[in-house]
Specification:
A 7-stranded mixed beta sheet has the order 2-5-8-13-16-18-19, with no helix packed on it. It has about 200 residues and is an alpha/beta fold. It is built from 4 helices and 21 strands. It has helices at about 5-10, 20-35, 45-55, 120; strands at about 15, 60-65, 65-70, 75, 80-85, 85-90, 95, 100-105, 110, 110-115, 125-130, 130-135, 140, 145, 150, 155, 160-165, 170-175, 180-185, 190-195, 195. The chain is globular, with a radius of gyration of 18 Å. The protein has a single domain (about 5-185), classed as Hexapeptide repeat proteins (UDP N-Acetylglucosamine Acyltransferase, domain 1, 3 Solenoid).
Length: about 200
């Protein structure tokens, strides 16, 4: 018989009320309490805490405190990752983030979900589906990414978006629900905001 943790990892419906998962969530909270409480100058100490908590990191990542997650061990960061203030990751399932990903402030990644009908929801049943963010993605502030979503490489998600479906590579997408607005082209190399041109010396 599978444990609640095994069911959670496998993407099956499960109840998160067992002692094992409770203890693991408590451990993550203790580590994140230390991370979020350290002085701003203690960058190396903060990163060491995250290296022990998260499933995978490189030597090049930076997460602005405060940061919250459920377990930590289901989060896998690619190289050169940056997240601004108030990142929340409910990592009941895996969250794979590629290289050179930037995340704005107040972004939430939710792998966890609950039944629509109230009776199984009240009984504590839930599920978790993985999130994948591919290389070179920029996610604007206040974005919510729902369970089971993949965001393709090089894409940009506009601020305030609620992502309910997969987003392909090389596009700008935004809105609630988030939808593709246009493709990213080589012309975008010459502009950074509306019609403002990039400096020629870059």
């Amino acid at each position: 018989m599978k444990s609640s943790k095994e069911k959670m990892i496998a993407g099956e419906i499960y109840q998160a009320m067992g002692r094992e998962l409770f203890d693991e969530r408590q451990h993550a909270k203790e580590q994140l309490f230390q991370f979020n409480s350290l002085e701003p100058s203690k960058i190396k100490a903060r990163n060491q805490l995250l290296k022990k908590l998260l499933g995978k990191t490189t030597n090049r990542f930076y997460i602005e405190p405060p940061f919250r997650c459920d377990y930590g061990y289901n989060i896998f960061l690619g190289d050169n990752f940056y997240a601004n203030y108030n990142l929340t990751i409910l990592d009941c399932s895996t969250v794979h983030i590629g290289a050179n990903v930037m995340i704005g402030p107040n972004v939430s990644l939710f792998t966890a979900g609950h039944p629509v009908h109230s009776e199984p929801r009240i009984a504590g049943w839930e599920f978790a589906k993985p999130i994948v963010i591919e290389d070179n993605v920029w996610i604007g502030g206040q974005t919510v990414i729902n369970p089971g979503i993949t965001i393709g490489m090089n894409s940009v998600i506009g601020s305030g978006s609620v992502v309910t479906k997969d987003i392909p590579a090389n596009v700008v997408a935004a809105g609630n629900p988030c939808r593709v607005l246009r493709n990213i082209t080589n012309d975008d190399k010459h502009y950074f905001f509306k019609n403002e041109k990039m400096p020629e010396d870059l």
